[in-house]
């Protein structure tokens, strides 16, 4: 892609960017923030998102302030609307295009609005096997929304998640406390996912983690508080001593602290979930495990990565986002994806092992 030459804005602008969920989707907005800052260096850029995702963009050098939506309900939504309206934004970039953001746009005056094309119909056609052309990667969909304002993508697109100095200091202290030296190889693992059909079996993760530990790597398990029990159950299945089952960071750290700690990993292996995008956004090579979903849906990580999947299954993808159980009952997309297959993809990213 050709680099677009943009003249700096003659007057400061107030730009509002909206993306409320989920973790991976908010992570992937960072390249857009890079381009907006480059195109409008004098602008004030505001980002509206759910409170729990604010750390994913709050420390971007181009973001003036994050306007968080904390909780649900009519009155909370009304207060949030009032906060956005008080900004009097001159430009609004809707990177969500949901019922919520459509309602918000109605009350934002005469702002110059651009909305990203999520290709919802195209992705459903892929699921129904009525179309084979893959959906555009999410990062490019977001960047395409800037073309209305004459901003095209640069020849080099990066997706970087920034963290605060405090979070970096915390991560350094956390590693020191757990006696993880700078020279040690650190493998991050993310066994959780919102949907069951996106979760690789626990016994496979147990075998994978044991292999890395036997190679003298340090393993750190990542996830939220809901995934702590899953991680502990995996550790119980491992063929190593309980004290050597890896370090469980899930449920113990804030999102910002986890983000900083992810940056210390030499490689990250996990299911098709937000953590994969977050690790990639910290510059970590990732191996993403696909089950019921496929890269063709547009949710592939932007950074250096490898895809681990079972090819040739006509039933994939069975849903845009995932399901609670395999519709056909066999769950071949995950059960047939062996540890050796995942390790083979991971080895392409590193010489370790």
Structure overview:
It is a single chain. The chain is globular and about 60 Å long. Helix content is 33%, strand content 14%. With 353 residues, it is of the alpha/beta class. It has a six-stranded parallel sheet with strand order 8-7-6-9-10-11, sandwiched between helices. A five-stranded parallel sheet has the order 3-2-1-4-5, sandwiched between helices. The chain has helices spanning 23-27, 30-39, 74-87, 99-106, 120-127, 138-144, 165-177, 202-214, 228-237, 255-262, 274-281, 332-335, 339-347; strands spanning 14-18, 44-50, 65-69, 91-94, 112-115, 186-190, 218-221, 247-248, 267-271, 286-289, 305-308. It has two domains: 14-149, Rossmann fold (3-Layer(aba) Sandwich); 165-347, Rossmann fold, CATH 3.40.50.2000. The longest helix is centred in the N-terminal third of the chain and has 14 residues, at 74-87.
């Amino acid at each position: 892609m050709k680099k677009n030459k943009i003249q700096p804005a003659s007057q400061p602008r107030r730009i509002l960017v909206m993306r409320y969920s989920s973790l991976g989707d908010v992570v992937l907005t960072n390249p857009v923030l890079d381009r907006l800052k480059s195109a409008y260096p004098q602008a004030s850029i505001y980002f509206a998102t759910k409170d729990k995702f604010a750390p994913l963009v709050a420390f971007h050098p181009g973001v003036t302030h994050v306007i968080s939506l904390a909780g649900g309900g009519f009155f909370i939504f009304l207060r949030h609307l009032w906060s956005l309206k008080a900004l009097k934004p001159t430009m609004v970039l809707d990177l969500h295009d949901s019922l919520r953001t459509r309602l918000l746009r109605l009350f934002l005056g005469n702002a110059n609005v651009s909305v990203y094309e999520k290709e919802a119909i195209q992705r459903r056609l892929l699921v129904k096997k009525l179309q084979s052309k893959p959906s555009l990667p999410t990062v490019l969909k977001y960047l395409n929304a800037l073309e209305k304002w004459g901003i095209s993508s640069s020849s080099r697109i990066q997706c970087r998640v920034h963290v605060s100095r405090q979070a970096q200091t915390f991560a350094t202290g956390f590693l020191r406390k757990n006696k993880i030296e700078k020279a040690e190889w650190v493998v991050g693992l993310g066994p959780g996912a919102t949907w069951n059909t996106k979760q690789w079996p626990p016994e496979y993760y147990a075998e994978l983690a044991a292999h890395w530990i036997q190679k003298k790597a340090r393993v750190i398990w990542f996830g939220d508080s809901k995934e702590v029990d899953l991680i502990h159950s995996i550790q119980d299945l491992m063929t190593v001593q309980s004290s050597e089952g890896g370090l469980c960071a899930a449920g113990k750290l804030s999102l910002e602290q986890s983000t900083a700690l992810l940056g210390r990993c030499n490689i990250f292996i996990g299911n098709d979930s937000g953590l994969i995008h977050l690790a990639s956004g910290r510059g970590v090579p990732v191996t993403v495990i696909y089950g019921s979903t496929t890269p063709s849906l547009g949710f592939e990580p932007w950074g250096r990565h490898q895809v681990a999947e079972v090819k040739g299954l006509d039933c994939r993808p069975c849903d845009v986002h995932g399901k609670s159980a395999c519709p056909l009952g066999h769950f071949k997309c995950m059960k047939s994806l062996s540890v050796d297959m995942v390790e083979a993809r991971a080895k392409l990213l590193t010489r370790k092992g």
